[in-house]
Amino acid sequence: MKKHMIEVPVRYAETDMMGVVYHANYLIYLEMARTSMIKSIGLDYKEMEDAGYVSPVTNANVDYKRSLTYGDTAFVSVWVKYYDGLRTIYAYEVTNAEGKVAASAETTHVVVKKENFRPIRLPKVFPEWHSIYERLNQETAHG
Amino acid sequence: MKKHMIEVPVRYAETDMMGVVYHANYLIYLEMARTSMIKSIGLDYKEMEDAGYVSPVTNANVDYKRSLTYGDTAFVSVWVKYYDGLRTIYAYEVTNAEGKVAASAETTHVVVKKENFRPIRLPKVFPEWHSIYERLNQETAHG
Amino acid sequence: MKKHMIEVPVRYAETDMMGVVYHANYLIYLEMARTSMIKSIGLDYKEMEDAGYVSPVTNANVDYKRSLTYGDTAFVSVWVKYYDGLRTIYAYEVTNAEGKVAASAETTHVVVKKENFRPIRLPKVFPEWHSIYERLNQETAHG
Amino acid sequence: MKKHMIEVPVRYAETDMMGVVYHANYLIYLEMARTSMIKSIGLDYKEMEDAGYVSPVTNANVDYKRSLTYGDTAFVSVWVKYYDGLRTIYAYEVTNAEGKVAASAETTHVVVKKENFRPIRLPKVFPEWHSIYERLNQETAHG
């Protein structure tokens, strides 16, 4: 699939005494790229929550390659790497202004009922999400 | 009233590139002291939330006097400065290991219904909280 | 002076279990507006840090009036309220998309040497900053 | 090696609107366990930083299995899984009060010069760290 990219100017608050962006904050950048991509394909994560469902992260795997600091902008690309109706795996690449890779990452997600955190299958509960993700997944497979 | 104190070892994640605890994080330390005090007097904030109420901050005023950094411990004291059934004002002092003041602060709180954020009066909805806070307030007035 | 405004789309990570932006995160929004304003008037905070100086917050005072949540955008205005060569007070207003006030605030800052956190006077060490802030201050006084 | 465990009461600020601990905050819990372990074996990470070196994370991999929320305590165990003089891999298990696994994780670290972020070899620069980690690594291999 086509990658979706956002630009995130580093906030001072995101640095630590090492002088660079604190590593946990990359997960926030990834989430911003992911929710921006979801919006860009015409879906609305907030509506999913309003309907009583949430989509927690079940795995996050980040390779840190080059640090970012205050004054830098993080360019965060995201795409759907895998989707099977139950789990979705997003892949990410974070680059700096020179195009050098600061981090690459993957996060895995399910959708659960908010009241009991039980996973649901998207084809049944969110057919529109399913058909769009099905298509994104095939683009990845053939791209 | 008697002051309630907690010890908070500074986390690396709480520092910024200035090499000290990022100023917004003091509000988290204050909250930890406040909820610890509430627990220590036999009340349970979580129960209040489970009953459909939350207690947002309506004002926070912090004087920063001396920085803290990784390796330091913040000693955070809290007491009830004012209570009138609707609003509660907590006062705080944050000191370092040598007893020197790192920050002093006040936060003001109301209790609201979670569904509409409308303030409620504690004597009516939470009589137990009211009688305890009434007493703490008088101790302050006469202390 | 003319107010400087930035738009900050609320991040999911900035919410808490109350369902709204966690109160400490407003201080981060204020800082983003402040550093953006500084940049817009041709100054560079990062250069100040590279020269061995930092500008810590000595007081932060926030009135919270209306909550913001995920899906909202915070419109953060900032202007110089007071400047005397040693201390600068910035004032802020945070509004939502309907123009209703979510928060108003003030933060006070000094500039200190990074190595010992001793305050310095801007006219002496940063004359360019001084002349610009002097002017901003007069605009406020006469506006 | 023997596992090192710390207890972390969940902070309100660490939750998000999903009502549970925000996933990025687990990385902070892991760091707290890791630095606590380092201290418990007689080493001092702050000294390493004071000597001009820092130890950034090069990979973080977290499996989220069960959510934690305000009112819960996270029990975080950590141990050295691998060490070769250049890279150290720590493994973690986060459990709740009932002993059920909330998350398991691994983080990989190198030590670099703060001024240029170039990796160094511990046997040469920090022989004391090296001999202790060498031993921890062997305990793991034979445990």
Structure, explained:
Four copies of one chain form a homotetramer. Chain A has 143 residues and is of the alpha+beta class. Chain A has one domain: Thiol Ester Dehydrase, Chain A (Roll), CATH 3.10.129. Helices cover 29% and strands 34% of the residues of chain A. The first copy, chain A, is built from four helices and eight strands; from the N terminus they run E-H-H-E-E-E-E-E-E-E-H-H. Chain A has helices spanning 25-40, 45-50, 122-125, 127-142, and strands at residues 4-9, 53-54, 57-64, 73-83, 88-95, 101-109, 111-113, 119-120. In chain A, strands 1-4-5-6-3 form a five-stranded antiparallel sheet. In chain A, strands 2-7-8 form a three-stranded antiparallel sheet. Chain A is globular. The first copy, chain A, starts with a strand and ends with a helix. Chain A binds chain D through residues 17-20, 23-25, 27-28, 49, 54, 56-65, 67, 114, 117, and chain D through 17-20, 23-25, 27-28, 49, 54, 56-65, 67, 114, 117.
What's this entry about, in short?
By secondary structure, the first copy, chain A, is an alpha+beta fold. In chain A, 29% of the residues lie in helices and 34% in strands. Chain A has one domain: Hotdog Thioesterase (Thiol Ester Dehydrase, Chain A, Roll).
Helical element count of chain A?
A: 4
How would you describe the oligomerization state of the chains in this entry? homotetramer
Rg of chain A, nearest Å = 16 Å
Identify the strand order in the major beta sheet of chain A: 1-4-5-6-3
Order of helices and strands of chain A: EHHEEEEEEEHH
**By CATH's scheme, which homologous superfamily of chain A applies?**
Hotdog Thioesterase
Strand content of chain A: 25-35%
